[in-house]
Amino acid sequence: xxxxxxxxxxxxxxxxxxxxxxxxxxxxxxxxxxxxxxxxxxxxxxxxxxxxxxxxxxxxxxxxxxxxxxxxxxxxxxxxxxxxxxxxxxxxxxxxxxxxxxxxxxxxxxxxxxxxxxxxxxxxxxxxxxxxxxxxxxxxxxxxxxxxxxxxxxxxxxxxxxxxxxxxxxxxxxxxxxxxxxxxxxxxxxxxxxxxxxxxxxxxxxxxxxxxxxxxxxxxxxxxxxxxxxxxxxxxxxxxxxxxxxxxxxxxxxxxxxxxxxxxxxxxxxxxxxxxxxxxxxxxxxxxxxxxxxxxxxxxxxxxxxxxxxxxxxxxxxxxxxxxxxxxxxxxxxxxxxxxxxxxxxxxxxxxxxxxxxxxxxxxxxxxxxxxxxxxxxxxxxxxxxxxxxxxxxxxxxxxxxxxxxxxxxxxxxxxxxxxxxxxxxxxxxxxxxxxxxxxxxxxxxxxxxxxxxxxxxxxxxxxxxxxxxxxxxxxxxxxxxxxxxxxxxxxxxxxxxxxxxxxxxxxxxxxxxxxxxxxxxxxxxxxxxxxxxxxxxxxxxxxxxxxxxxxxxxxxxxxxxxxxx
Length: 566
Ligand code: GLC
Ligand code: CA
What we know:
By secondary structure, this protein is α/β, with parallel strands linked by helices. It folds into three domains: 5-106 and 175-469, Alpha-Beta Barrel (TIM Barrel); 109-164, Oligo-1,6-glucosidase, Domain 2 (Oligo-1,6-glucosidase, domain 2); 489-564, Golgi alpha-mannosidase II (Immunoglobulin-like, Sandwich), CATH 2.60.40.1180. It has 15 helices and 23 strands. The chain has helices at 30-35, 37-43, 78-90, 109-116, 179-195, 235-252, 266-273, 307-320, 339-342, 349-361, 391-403, 408-418, 455-460, 465-478, 482-487; strands spanning 11-14, 47-50, 54-55, 67-71, 94-100, 128-129, 132-134, 137-139, 153-156, 161-164, 199-203, 255-261, 282-285, 328-330, 366-370, 489-492, 500-506, 511-517, 523-526, 530-538, 544-546, 549-552, 557-564. The strands form six sheets. The protein has an eight-stranded parallel beta sheet, covered by helices on one side. α5 (179-195) packs parallel to α6 and α10 packs parallel to α14. The longest helix is centred in the middle third of the chain and has 18 residues, at 235-252. It is globular and about 80 Å long. Calcium ion (CA) is lined by residues 21-23, 25, 27, 29.
């Protein structure tokens, strides 16, 4: 295996709009990130992934790009980006940008040209199709549904035809079959790398190819069934990625992490990101994001982690990538509910928060912390649909309401539990007004728990979750265990144990045993196979071991250095 710089990094994801507002207009910005770089360095991270800050009409908070090489006014200027890159370099922090290449904004000059006439030179930059006639009425070319609800096509009257858009109407999909599009995207990527950034998180990358335009199967009478297979992981995506790799990634030694979403199996993940696939450095998958009963409940307190399912997913990805590839390690991101509200405990927030952190950070791969995770931020207590900002949360509410029109409260609760607004509430810096995020009214509600959960409070208490994250990062990067934590083999244990997620990491001459209890009750674990050498990190001060039996307190988590008895 050839070692790469990112294998030894610890990443942090920033959602710029909600991170820190430097000029008091209520919107987080690039200078805000600049001002908090020291904070990130103190935590120990040395790689940041910044969600889109490009010029955009903000239909999807920046994922709808109007100009790939300019900054949205509310976020700052290109000069601010330069300043940020320079300061980050001084602090040893690498910067990865979000590369949105499946679509642009409908306000992008290419699209404005493209829709203007059928023979415009930019027409083929996007995917256009005539409508279908049914009973004398014109309808979409296929019945395909989109991720944000409704059809995957949108009608445009200028040329009386439909363009494809698997996200929102304002996000027309680029036509990757067109070599000019490929070249444009290659140029954009190169331009940013030449500007000094260190790589990309590549948005929605599994969707760059489309199946034949044949209707999807209809289930539950849905008018526009969302069939991922129609536009996910299709063969040509790999050709496009090999091209990007050859022309861009390989030339810069840059990091490329593809978002392959919920659609990619492990085999597909390997195709994208094994060491010899010559496509991506790694892929983000979401398999571990929904190992609870999120889809069935409306009450957040009724969420229950399915430990067996969760570790099955972790084990499978870890073991499949063992010698052939590298993985990012992340709990959740800006599209998922908050970690604490998903797998954490209401009764034991500190203990469960630390346990979740340890469980992830001890695996093999490159950890990514999502902003606010290090202080245990939680979901927002939505009480009204008007509080939603995110386009997909609004459509999810509509969807649930359509199913059960008499129960708007239930629709709200369902949409709220999964809402992408949860991770996007402003970062809670202090107990000051607006959580110290801004002195003006923020663009998005601050979680009312900010007086209890904030950075300032975490920093002042050595026993805080934040300090636990700092310790985990320090162990990974600067300790006698670093080599084992980074490169050691991962070996799953106790597959059928419903309470504990346990595994070994085996280095050259060290073995670490990682034990994480997901139970709110006392549990026990048999240690008779091991000689315990020492405790490396834990979330309770004392461990209770008697006659080789470890008695675990609620959500207890321990990393032992052990010797295996033969
Ligand atoms: C990705 C992003 C998400 C965005 C979508 C469309 O899934 O993570 O936030 O809405 O792509 O760009
Ligand atoms: Ca601002």
